[in-house]
Amino acid sequence: MRVAEKDPARLLCQCGCGVLQSADESPDLESLTDREREVLLALGTGGTNRLVARRLGIAERTVKGHVASLVSKLGLVSRLEVVAVAILHHRRICPNPKWNGTPP
């Protein structure tokens, strides 16, 4: 498996594909809960649902539920678009540039 296949955030940054353009339509991030924001940021750093769950100390099934909620609330179609939103709108989600998606 190539690195890009393991790390969707890196793939999106490298290719600049249509997903980035469609995700750049300023989604309503204000409607997200604090936990949804944490999951969104963690997804933006790359990794599987399992890895995000470990980082946040929650169950993988809970991450899947949050991803489904993010897709719905942000008017997206896929997890890949959620990752694109996380990358494009990182500063709006979490204004602290030192935060890496892992809770303290």
UniProtKB/TrEMBL annotation:
* Matching CDD domains: LuxR_C_like
Q: Which GO terms describe its biological process?
A: regulation of DNA-templated transcription
Q: Which SUPFAM superfamilies match?
A: C-terminal effector domain of the bipartite response regulators
Q: Where is the HTH luxR-type domain?
A: 25-90
Q: Could you tell me one molecular function GO term of this UniProt entry?
A: DNA binding
Q: Which UniProt keywords apply?
A: DNA-binding, Transcription, Transcription regulation
Q: What is this protein called?
A: DNA-binding response regulator
Q: Upper taxonomic classification of the species?
A: Bacteria, Bacillati, Actinomycetota, Actinomycetes, Kitasatosporales
